[in-house]
Design brief:
heterodimer, A: 98 residues, mainly alpha, two-stranded antiparallel ribbon, 3 helices, B: 493 residues, eleven-stranded mixed sheet, 13 strands
Chain lengths: 98, 493
């Protein structure tokens, strides 16, 4: 499996990682080697085999709808990297707004 | 018995406290002293909670003195892997991106250990986000193997393993996604138990791969591992993947297993667990151990499990894919590290993550994102999930013929620090024997079974059917009694 630089750029964007080309090229050979190993799964008789996302079937269970304590506001604010008053501060999200 | 040491084992330490020969206060001081003396070199702890541990120990001693009942782990000093939340302590999972994060709640397993009156001495070092086989990728630096300081302690629960092996604590919790409890246990001459998927709550475990992660104990004997699983296991309303099956009496299972011995036990030995390239020191060590178990009455049955040979390939698509989803939450917004001087929120995400994650985590995030991306998902991720079905069915089929499956835990003895740093694929292949049980969600355990000619520990892995921990522990206790006792390293004086 060949992973050219433009594909690595797209992957880093999808993964939410701001990496420059030099950094991306540092991962290229490793990723290609791992994907070459992964490609060997095609040798297995997989036609018609059900995928197994969890090792045992999971069923959603309903729990009583009871109010319970959440995290106190001061704890959440203490964990935040930046706050403004009683809110978590983040950079501008939408262009054109102050 | 005032010289009781954390490494003496749970039964001995409980009896010594009950008999008044030692106290929880003495044990916690012995543990803290040992950490101060030995851990500068080992780097097994990232944080020691001395004051809180002393308070916990004093509470236990006070309750004993007043004749009040105490829990099943009363006064036992334990370590907790730093990807498990312990309220009030930083939980960094070995990553720069979680700098400054202080756990606002206890994980379920920590809460259960507290309720059992265990003394939680501190948080142990690990590979970043539990991704690794050598505990070399932590932001806190590498862990050293107490058996040979030039070598890795295994990973990702290497800090927990090194701390127990050096006698700094009696036992420790780790987490096992593809072998991260069993492999460091093998590398450090310990028992490491990965329970059935769903046996132990994941609530408060910093998620790596949600369909694989399981919390498990590292201990110096099978019975200690059973005692800890007995406390931490069982249903939990806080985790929908925690199974409703109640835990059987695991300590009784160990004792019955030891009394009954191995006659009548059918041990399956897959030929895929002894591939041509297997390190001869492991092949010899595990081969001799299996011979000893055979002489003690076990019937050895050769198995052919061809799909398990593809476990590594399937795992290194599934686990990174799940990690790519789970680690999306680390974005510099609500907690952890935030990149400075960013213009907008997209740059905040991209730079906080690129600066906060180390190279191994980034490699796996890229791999997982690839496996899930349009055009490749069917060829890679879907095939990996189908391969997982084949492996699970093969193992289920095998358990119609045998009671337990046995083989090496690792393909080689502990390697030198830095030896595999430039070759991620070689590191991934370290997990080749532990991954099948992880993919199938089965309980599995590594047991010390001897040493290599240069004196490095060798691990024997045992697997059991899902939710058959009692069978696994009974067989392991019986096997433990037939194998040479592992050398105990010096702990606190």
């Amino acid at each position: 499996m060949n992973l050219p630089l433009d594909e690595l750029r797209a992957l880093s964007r999808l993964a939410g990682l701001q990496l420059d080309d030099q950094q991306l090229l540092g991962y290229q050979a490793d990723l290609q080697g791992i994907l070459a190993l992964a490609a060997r799964l095609a040798e297995l008789p997989l036609a018609g085999v059900e995928p197994c996302p969890y090792p045992r079937p999971l069923t959603l269970t309903l729990q009583p709808d009871r109010p319970g304590p959440g995290l106190p506001r001061e704890v959440v604010l203490r964990l935040a990297p930046a706050v403004a008053g009683e809110r978590v501060r983040v950079p501008r999200v939408v262009d054109g707004e102050g | 018995m005032a010289s009781a040491r954390p490494g003496d084992g749970i039964a001995t330490l409980l009896a010594a406290q009950e008999g008044g020969a030692t106290s929880a206060a003495h044990l916690v001081e012995a543990s803290l002293h040992a950490i101060a003396q030995h851990d500068g070199e080992l780097n097994s702890f990232v944080r020691v909670a001395a004051d809180a541990a002393r308070e916990q120990a004093a509470r236990v001693d006070r309750r004993r003195a007043q004749g009040e009942p105490v829990g099943p782990l009363a006064g036992i000093p334990l370590g907790i892997k730093d990807n498990l939340l312990q309220q009030g302590l930083p939980a960094q999972a070995g990553s720069r991106i979680l700098e400054g994060f202080v756990a606002p709640v206890d994980s379920t397993v920590v809460a259960r250990l507290r309720a059992a009156d265990a003394v939680l001495v501190g948080k142990t070092n690990l590979d970043e986000f539990a991704m690794g086989s050598g505990s070399e990728t932590s932001v806190h630096g590498p862990v050293r193997n107490p058996w040979d300081h030039r070598r890795v302690a295994g990973g990702s629960s290497g800090g927990s393993a090194a701390a127990v092996a050096a006698g700094l604590v009696t036992a420790a919790l780790g987490s096992d996604t593809g072998g991260s409890v069993r492999q460091p246990a093998a590398f450090c001459g310990l028992v490491g138990l990965k329970p059935t998927y769903g046996r132990v709550s994941r609530s408060g475990l910093i998620a790596f791969a949600s369909s694989l992660d399981q919390v498990g104990p590292l201990a110096s004997c099978v019975e200690d591992a059973a005692r800890i699983l007995q406390v931490i296991g069982g249903p939990d309303p806080a985790d929908a993947t925690a199974a409703p099956e109640p835990l059987p009496d695991l300590l009784a299972a160990c004792r019955q297993g030891r009394a009954a011995g191995l006659p009548g036990i059918r041990l399956g030995v897959p030929r895929q667990f002894f591939p041509p390239g297997l390190d001869p020191r492991i092949a010899d060590g595990v081969g001799q151990a299996l011979d000893a178990l055979g002489r003690a009455g076990a019937t050895l049955v050769e198995l052919d499990l061809p799909a398990t040979a593809h476990g590594v390939a399937a795992y290194y698509l599934i686990a990174p894919a799940e990690a790519a989803a789970n680690l999306a939450r680390f974005d510099g917004v609500r907690y952890g590290r935030r990149a400075a001087g960013v213009a907008d929120v997209a740059e905040l995400y991209g730079r906080s993550r690129a600066e906060g994650f180390g190279p191994e985590v980034i490699r796996r995030l890229l791999l997982g994102t690839f496996a899930l991306s349009a055009g490749y998902q069917e060829r890679y991720y879907l095939r990996a999930l189908q391969t997982r079905t084949l492996i699970r069915e093969e193992l289920q089929q095998a358990f119609r013929q045998v009671d337990l499956i046995a083989g090496p835990t690792t393909p080689g003895p502990p390697y030198l620090l830095g030896e595999l740093a430039a070759d991620p694929l070689a590191q991934y292949l370290q997990d080749c024997f532990t991954i099948p049980a992880s993919l199938a969600g089965l309980p599995a355990l590594s047991l010390p079974c001897g040493v290599t000619p240069e004196g490095l520990p060798v691990g024997l892995q045992l697997l059991a059917p899902a939710f058959q921990e009692q069978r696994l522990l009974a067989g392991a206790a019986a096997a433990e009694a037939c194998l040479p006792p592992p050398r105990r390293l010096g702990g606190p004086a």
